[in-house]
Amino acid sequence: MCNSLHFLIFIILQISIGQCFANVTKLFLSEDALLNFTQLAKKYGHPAEQYEVVTEDGYVLTLFRIPGFRQVSQPSSSLPILLMHGICDTSDTWIIRGYESLAITLANAGHDLWLGNVRGNRYSRKHLFLDPDEDDEFWNFTFNEFGMYDLASFIDFVLLRTGAAKLNAIGHSQGTTIFYVLGSTKPKYNQKINVFISLAPICYLSHVPNPLASLIELSPVLYSKAKKVGLNEFPGKVIGEALLKVCSQPVTGYVKCVLGMVFAIGGYDREEYEPAFLRVSIGHFPSSTSAKDLYHYAQVGRRRSFSKFRSGP
Ligand SMILES: *[C@@H]1O[C@H](CO)[C@@H](O)[C@H](O)[C@H]1NC(C)=O
Ligand SMILES: *[C@@H]1O[C@H](CO)[C@@H](O)[C@H](O)[C@H]1NC(C)=O
Q: What is the CA radius of gyration of the chain?
């Protein structure tokens, strides 16, 4: 309990200190921090295509495609690959390592890549009738809807477009949860997937260490506070901009954001997330999800069961 309160106070302090350093932000960010998916794909040699996919409940999502180099030696039966990003993330996650990134590596090897963006993130903040800035209802979703609607729409779209009967898929973190949701709520989709690779899979959250464990314990209180102040989107514009300011300070940005937040939550790994990479990643991560999505994960942890969202603690 105490731990996570300290942690929250720590984050708020960091954010307010960061406001003073706004002017150095631009200098610190690397070029790739400021390029979007399309621009990065082009820079690293694989111009991307962009599609809008509309879900059955009206969300307008962005799906990118990198067709890859067709190689003479490659069997024409090779299947398309669908890549799904993690929580508060976007399709950029697959390409921000440039030439070494998974997207560019697979494209160089001749694979046909499709990269989805779930509802609410920077590329999929759009709906046929609802306005994300005006209508609370826009943010009424969790990973359950990402799986049942967004992922189902992406799979159908890719198969229709390519004429393939099945696809291969790679998910990262929440990008794996949504496949488990879809496969169990709409089992016919299991037949549409040939191989699924789960990177950092998330299903149960019963044994996570602090500070995450304490945040999960506190989540009913935090969620009702968030609802009271109308925080539907997380991190959203205000918190997101504050984070950008803090995290893009030279030197202290790494200490506060990577050591103090990313490693504190995800585990220490300096080789995987070195200081120079923060100068790129901060322009792409975090993007937004709903507060309800975070609370749904916390419910999975508290209840020790992978089940649907319920109102109440
Ligand atoms: C990427 O940025 C370019 C240049 O600002 C813009 O024209 C394009 O619409 C952007 N693409 C996406 C998917 O945001
Ligand atoms: C949110 O969506 C659920 C269905 O997933 C529905 O039962 C509920 O009424 C919705 N709440 C609001 C506030 O729109």
A: 19
